[in-house]
Structure formats: structure tokens, C-alpha cells
Amino acid sequence: MNWPLALGALALLMAFRTDSSKSDEPSMPHALLLVVNQGDQSLSIVDPGPGQQVGKIKTRGIRGHEVIASPDGRLAYVPIYGDSGVGQSGSSGQTVEVIDLATQKIVNTIDLGRPVRPHCAKFAPDGLLYVTAELDNAVDIIDPLSQKRVASIATERPEAHMLAITKDGKRAYTSNVGSGTVTVLDLVHRKPVTVISVADVAQRISLSTDDRWVFTADQKKPRLAVIDTKSNAVSSWISLPSIGYGTAPTPDGRWLLVTMPSASQVAVIDLEQMKVIRTLPVGARPVEILLRPDQPIAYISCMGAGEVGVVDLSKWEVSKVIKTAPGADGLAWALRK
């Protein structure tokens, strides 16, 4: 099972529509929501149907920030970043912890060979795991069969923090925070293509559902950069009510959701008009967004509240709150066979 392609296929099959779909359907079969909690250094396992935490695993390393599940939904990979924020002094992790979701135990630790503050992890269609290696100005490539780092791709800029990969697996984009840039990577030939200047400081990154646009948020001004993936240049800016952070498009490609941590809100952008059409109040310090592929529902990790807000996109309101732990951050789906 190819996890990224499975999500896209499921989204098309379920005909996602925010105007008429119902959000009270049964939960996705064999699906788990994974939540990384920085505060108590743990991974929460949540049943997305009732919105209940069904397990929690304490990580061994100091503060994982993000998580991804294996394509078969059996394992979770948590890069161990360290005890500080991006660009700040503190410890620097160099491992990725592998967790068996059935037994809820750490079954392996992948050593990346040097302290790089690994952060964002993504599986690509080639079956390999790509992990940002922030202090090495690179993206590391891990073979999940050997559980070892097999290669790295230079980002040519420091603080490669987040990563987005196209559906065909040929291109990847990194948000390089302190340099305010985006690096375009050729995953086929494992080399950088170009570096795009965006702002003084930029955070987070996502791709539109058709891979036409890349989005990243200016951290000095309330605006979102729209990068044309054909020209590899900033084509326009979208004004925001407050400084933006994490972004995610809805599966139908109509809306882009943007967390605004200082406002404790999520902005909703109409991608046809390229402008904000509404804002939604959520818990304190929202950071990351994960969409359900089969229903008009968004999960928002709220770091300041230690919870995940469940947003019903057919009603544009928070329908429930899932308490996990302080510092709720990274989100991912585990879709089991």
C-alpha cells in the first residue's frame, strides 16, 4: 500500500465536498490519528471516530516535533529534534525513533550519524523516507527496509525545517526558516534545483492538491507566499489577519487552511480568489493542520492548549476537542491494511 497515493485515491472516491458532505459518518476503518506532544515527550494514538486517545508512547529522545506513519500503517517514525526551537541554542538530536503502533513500543532507533536536528519526515511514492536534517543543510533519505540513512540531498540553505513532496515523487520543497527561502529538490537525481527567496523569515510549507502552488508563511508580516511550481518563483501574496504558520489544502482543492498561532485562529483561504474569506477560533497557539480524506473535517494541533481541535468544515466550527498533552504539535495518519 502506497500511503501518499492511498490518501489521494480515498479522497477522490469519497467525493469530498464542504458544502453538502456530512461530518457524522462512521470513522475511517483501520485509521489512527497520531499526535506528537512536545511537553511530555510522547506520541498520542487517537481513534478519530470518537476522538479518543487510545494509547500514548513516551519517546526516549528529547522532544520529537513531527511524525509520519509507514505506508502499511504499522509503524510510526518520530524524528528526535532536541530541546530548543529552530535557530535557537540547545541540544541537537540525531535519531529517528520507530514505534510499533500495535504493541505501542519503540522497536528501533535510526541513527543519522551526526547531530542534525531531524524534524519533518515524509514518505514518497518510491517507498523511501525523507527527513529534514536542519543543521546539515540537507534532507536525509532513509531506507525503511534496512532502517538506515542511505543518502542526503543538499538544500543549500540552513534551517530546512519542513518538507512537501509532489504526488509523483519527483520534486520536493523545503522551508528554510532563518534564510526565508524555499529549496526545490529533484528527488529522482537527488540534487537541488534552485533556491527561491521569499522573506526575511519563513515558516512551514504545503503544496496545493494539484501541485501547482507552494505555500509558505512570512514570519515578519501577515502574509502568505504563493510560489508557482512551473516558474519556481513567488507569483503572489495573500494577506492574512495575523502572522500565519502551518498550511494545508482541503482534498477538493477549494480551500487552504492557515494556522495563526498568536490569534488562536485558523484562516480559510478561497484558492479561486486567493484571499481569506473567514477565520475560525480554535485552541491556544494552533500550529499544524491535518485533513480527513473522506469527510470535511480538519484536525488542528493547538500547542498552547495541549489539544487537537476537530473542525467541521461543512459548518465551519469546532465540533470537538481531543485532549492529548502539553505541546501538541505534529500530526499524521496511520492507515492500516
What this model shows, in words?
52% of the residues are buried. The model is unreliable at 1-26 (pLDDT under 50). The chain has one domain (3-335): Methylamine Dehydrogenase, Chain H, CATH 2.130.10. It contains one helix and 28 strands. It has a four-stranded antiparallel sheet with strand order 3-2-1-28, with no helix packed on it. It has a four-stranded antiparallel sheet with strand order 4-5-6-7, with no helix packed on it. Helix content is 3%, strand content 50%. It is mainly beta and 337 residues long.
Can you give keywords for this protein?
337 residues; mainly beta; Methylamine Dehydrogenase, Chain H; 4-stranded antiparallel sheet; 3% helix; disordered N terminus
Order of helices and strands: HEEEEEEEEEEEEEEEEEEEEEEEEEEEE
**What gross morphology would you assign?**
globular
Task: Please tell me the overall pLDDT.
Answer: 92
CATH topology label: Methylamine Dehydrogenase, Chain H
Number of helices: 1
**Separation of the first and last Cα atoms:** 8 Å
Profile the largest sheet.
4 strands, antiparallel
Helical content, roughly? under 10%
CATH class categorisation: Mainly Beta
How much is the radius of gyration in Å?
A: 18 Å
Instruction: Report the structural category.
Output: mainly beta
Please list the strands of the largest sheet in the order they lie side by side. Answer: 3-2-1-28
CATH superfamily: YVTN repeat-like/Quinoprotein amine dehydrogenase
CATH architecture: 7 Propeller
Q: What fraction of the residues are assigned to beta strands by DSSP?
A: over 45%
Low-pLDDT ranges: 1-26
Number of domains: 1
Number of E strands: 28
